[in-house]
Structures are given as C-alpha cells and as structure tokens.
Amino acid sequence: MPLSRPDSDAGDSRWLGLPGLPGLAGLSVMLAPDSQAGRSNLMQLVQLRWLAVAGQLATVVSVHYTLNIRLPVAEMLTLLAVLLLFNLACWIRTRWVPSVSNAELFAGLLVDVAVLSGQLYYSGGVTNPFVFLYLLQIAVGAVLLPARFIWPMVWLTAACFLALTQWHLPLLLPDLAGLSLPPHYVGGLLICFAINASLLVTFIHRISGNLRQRDARLADLRQRAAEEEHIVRMGLLASGAAHELGTPLSTLSVILGDWAHMAPFAGDPELREEIEEMQVQLRRCKAIVSGILMSAGEMRGEAPMVTTLHTFLGDLVEHWRRTRTSGRLQYRADSDLPDLRIVSDVGLKQMIDNILDNAQEAAPGESILMRAYPEDDQLVLCVRDRGPGFLPEMLERLGKPYQSSKGRPGGGLGLFLALNVTRSLGGRLQARNRAQDEGGGAEVEIRLPLSALVPQGLADNGGHDGR
User: Fold this and answer.
1) Exposed, middle or buried: residue 253 (CB in 10 Å: 0-12, 13-18, 19+)?
2) Most buried by CB count within 10 Å: which residue of 186, 203, 304, 358?
3) What's the pLDDT at 374?
C-alpha cells in the first residue's frame, strides 16, 4: 500500500510502501510538491471514500436481506447518503482548488469517523466486529497528517469507542437473543483498541520519519553527484581552455622577456616597471589556469610539494599580497598552531586564493583579515572582510554555482569550487554575516582536517617524520 506524507521534506515524487494494513489495498498517495501535496492526498481520500461507501452499502444490504439480521436500514442508508454527498463535494473541490491544507484533510477524516460511529450505533456498538475499522481511519490519518492532528484523532476514536459501549442499538441475532458482553470483556476491548491505536500511530510516524531521513540523504547524495558532474564538465572546459591558452601565454612570455632586455625598454624605468608587472600578471594567468584545472576535479594537484604549515600559509599570503596590488591583507597565526609537514599543491592554494579574492572584491580598498588556528585536530582558516555581507538567499544556497552578487556572467564559481575542494579534503566551509558590534562584513570559515594535509606515511605519527 504506497502511502505518502504531505509534509515530507522531499521535493520530488516518491512512493512510501507500508504493506500489511487490511482493507487499504489499492490506496496510493503520491507525494507531490508542497503546493499540491494536500490536493493530491484529498483526491486519494475521495477515491478511498467511494470504496468505503460501496463496501458499507454492500454490507448493510447483504446482512439485512441475505443473513436475515434486522437492521435499521433507513437510518443507515441515510448516513451513507450523507457520506456520499460529502464525498461528491470533496471531489468537486479537488477540481477547483490548487492546494488543500492539513486541517481540511483532518476535518474530512472526522466526517468519516462520525459516519462510522453512526453506522456502529445502529448495528450493535462494540458488539459489532466492524468496530475495529476505527484503526483504518487512524492508519490513514497517521500516514497523511502530522502528529498534531493524528493524536487528537486517536483520542476522538477512543472516545467514540467508549461511548459505543454504553449507547447503541443491539444487534438482533436469532441465535444470540438477549446475549450481552460482560463489562470486563468490553473494558479489555477498549484497552486493546487504545494500545493498538497508539502503537500504530507511533510506528507509522517512526517509519515515515526514517523514510524521510533516507530520502533526505539520497537527495543530498544526488545533489553532490550533480555538483561533481558539474565539476567534471568544468574540468573538461578548463582543460580545453588551458590547451588553447598555452601557446599564446607562452608567446607573450617570450615577447615580454625579449622586451625586458631591449635597450629602449631597459633604459626607461617606468617602462621596465610596467613590463615587470605584465610578467607578474602573466605568471598569475598561468597559475589561475592550473588552479582551475586542479579545483575542477583533482583532489591533490600536480607537482605537490612537501613543506610546513607555517611556510605554506606565509608563502600563500605573501604571494597574494604581491599579485594583488590593491589588496590589503592582515594575516594572524595563533601561537598554538602546529608547524606540521604538509602537502602543498596548486588546488589548495587556489581554493584559499578564491576566498581572499571574493573578500577583496566585496570590500575594495578595505583591509582583509585571515586568521589561522587549530581546533579539534583541524586547521581553521577564518577570512573576514568589511563589505556589505552576503545576501540571505546566497547564504541559503551557499556553494551553489552561479550564486553571486557581482552581477556578471559566470560569477559565483569561487565559493562553489572552494566548497568542493574543501569537501574533497574532508573539511567544511561555512559563511555568515557578522553583526555590527563585531565590525560588520562577512566571514568565511574553512575547516580542514590536519590529517588530510599531512603527506602519506606521516599522518599516523602526527605529521612528523622523526627527523
């Protein structure tokens, strides 16, 4: 019996299977998006109610006319007519409204409970074996409704069950005339009903919760797979761009080298300074192309070097200051930061450069602060700027490609690549807006396990090689 919950967090259509509930075979409620889930569930309730009307009609007719058990047919058929008209109104509503609330579904189930209670009142109350159809209503409600609605239904059906023990028209059975159930047996039936109803609701909600958690994990895995596929495509594009740019960049490097030794340029200090700046920017272009290649698909880059953590961070900061002439970067390393031997590569450098570049572009001319400190066997890099901060929608979709406030095509890839490189190293990237009493601006925090930076063979002894 595939059922679904309208308040599930999953965004796409899913089928939740809950086999083994009698009388519900054929009921299928497909989980639609939030705006249409209630309407979809109401349509399924309408279909189930048609089956209930047909089943009750067949039962009343067969018992009264075939088994010769006298029933108040007029009253019972009147209740069925009321249920039929109500279901017809619900069917018309599904054709005209785009969405249905949980409160409306709850009200519809209360009508079903009321009609069932009336039918049981006219047919023997708790002595009628169909009294446990109340559990069917509870099961449907437990699947369709959140706990704040279903537990009141449990209490209401239990109250109806209790009332039927005292007020009902007796069944006129030819072989059991004048027979009544002992009070202790009736009390046992009530306790049995309450236990069954409570366990049914509890386990259905737990199963639904487990399924929602599973769906959330699957959705997260699908999202990661889509992001990795996106990175693969970017890697292919970057490889093509690197191949195409390799020749002109090399040609420019040769030309600038020749110009640097020509007398007209070497004799003019201003021209010589401009040539040197062009050579610096040309080397930066080559580093950017290599860094994109590494960040787009390689966990550890080409030509990795073994260095120390302090040297790596110091060189990275110095290189960033030298190649970003308009950037003002303050760097602070806590005294308890261990100077471990780590692997340095282009991808790791480019990831941190992307964060610093974003901070510089967010607050041009302002000073940027990068702090490095250890915490729980992790390297924590905290980058702060004094810009306007992140927009709320950017924080909600942090790390998604093309989420940028810079207003240019292709923007927003810096944080996307940084997030995936951090994730590939087993770390975590977080961003937030700082309060005004903290100085304002934005803060990006990168947490990397120190064991992921240590060369293979040195991780087991804390990054030291014994020398």
Assistant:
1) middle
2) 358
3) 92
> Which of helix, strand or coil describes residue 368?
strand
Give residue for tokens 């009903």.
193
Place of tokens 């009070």: 183
CA distances from 421 to 113, 156, 354, 378 (A): 56, 55, 11, 16
Burial of 435 (0-12, 13-18, 19+ CB in 10 A): exposed
Reduced to 3 states (helix: H, G, I; strand: E, B; else coil), residue 380 is: strand
Helix, strand or coil for residue 421? helix
What phi, psi does 410 have (nearest 5°)?
Answer: 80, 0
Token pair, residue 166, equals 């005292």
What phi, psi does 160 have (nearest 5°)? -65, -40
Positions of the chain with pLDDT lower than 50, given as ranges: 1-35, 295-303, 407-411, 458-467
Is-contact 144 6, C-beta < 8 A? yes
β-strands 442-449, 378-384: how paired? antiparallel
- β-sheet with 442-449: strand ranges across: 328-333, 367-374, 378-384, 442-449, 428-433
Q: Please name every residue paired with 445 in a beta bridge, in sequence order, or none if there are none.
A: 382, 430
Which domains, from first to last, does the chain contain? 2-221 (no CATH), 303-461 (3.30.565.10)
